[in-house]
Amino acid sequence: MLGNFVSTWKSVIIHPNDFFRDMPTSGGYRDPLVFAVINYIIYAIIASTSNLVQIRSLVESGVIPGSMVAISYVMSLVGLIFTPVFSIIGLFIGAAIYFICFKMVGGSGSYEGTFRISAYASAVTVISGVLVVVFTFVNLLSPVNQMISITDMAELMESMQYMVYSISSIILLLLLLVIYSIYLMGQGGKYVHNITMLRSVIAILLPSIVVGLLFISLIMFSGSGGEICT
Questions:
Q1: How far is CA 53 from the centre of its chain?
Q2: Would you give per-residue pLDDT tens digits along the chain (230 residues)?
Q3: List of residues 6+ apart from 99 with CB closer than 8 A
Q4: Measuring CA to CA, which residue among 94, 128, 119 is closest to residue 203?
Q5: Burial code of 51-67, b = ≥16 C-beta within 10 A, e = fewer?
Q6: Do 189 and 206 contact (CB within 8 A), yes or no?
Q7: Which pTM value belongs to this model?
Q8: Nearest to 150 by CA among 54, 59, 61
Q9: What would the 3-class secondary structure string for 75-137 be?
Q10: Which terminus of the chain has a lower count of CB atoms within 10 Å, N or C?
Q11: Largest CA distance in the chain
Q12: Distance CA 98, CA 91 (A)
């Protein structure tokens, strides 16, 4: 089972066009669901372990009190249990939303096919977990520990500048990962729903566009409401 997961994961990430072209659009939910669950569990383990190590490091550095260690154990356990659960629920709901969006742009595929796209595209969650861990420990925790003992302002500013660069690197890489995730979903939609790549990407972006427009409208409405009241 593990060998099958690894080979499937590599195919999704490295050869998405070939994978989604050959992916069956029917046959049940078990295989794609199991694949997604394994990805979510791996991410939950990585995130929980990262949280524990970070808290212990900050306690040893004197940044936060030792009582936070016990709290972090509880929070990590909660995250380890509920992250996969809520991710699975979100997978089914998200597939339904994407299915509607694909239909809006002329897609002809099924809900099951859309679910399979979302499930296999969850492979990127493992990469996101690894990226956060690597850049947190290599680029963030060391500067934090060093800043505690720094007394010279120039060294402090240099250390803070290093942290800004590190955080910017994390944001950039996560942004690239989001773009690649959209690309994976777009490839899947192209074959499952028999539409062009452009239409497939538009369908993937539609939920975010709608949410963004609603958020902007809410801000504008709140602002105009405040002006009316004054």
A1: 21
A2: 677 899 999 999 999 999 999 999 999 999 999 999 999 999 999 888 877 777 776 666 665 666 666 777 788 788 888 989 999 999 999 999 999 999 999 999 999 999 999 999 999 999 988 887 776 666 555 555 555 555 566 666 666 676 677 677 778 888 899 999 999 999 999 999 999 999 999 999 999 999 888 888 888 887 665 555 55
A3: 109, 110, 111, 114, 115
A4: 94
A5: bbebbebbbeeeeeeee
A6: no
A7: 0.81
A8: 61
A9: HHHHHHHHHHHHHHHHHHHHHHHHHHHHHHCCCCCCHHHHHHHHHHHCCHHHHHHHHHHHHHH
A10: C
A11: 66
A12: 10
Q: Quote the tokens at residue 53.
A: 């190590």
Token pair 């402090």 in the structure block, residue: 156
Which amino acid would we find at residue 204? I
* Tokens at 73, concatenated: 């154990």
Which tokens is 208 given?
């975010």
